[in-house]
Known about the structure:
Residues 1-27 are annotated as: Disordered. It is built from two helices and no strands. It has helices at 8-25, 38-50. It is flat and about 45 Å long.
Amino acid sequence: MKRKAIDQAAVKRAAVRSTRESASLERRTVPANYVRSAKTGRFVVARNTQK
């Protein structure tokens, strides 16, 4: 099978879709109008900048 170049955005979309579907199967979806707390937002940003 030939190797194919895949852009980073496509990988990100696939990961988001997979995570959303997995959560849905486990019945732990987040409501569309849910807003994270400020503390949680800071935590997520801190975790993402560590990588």
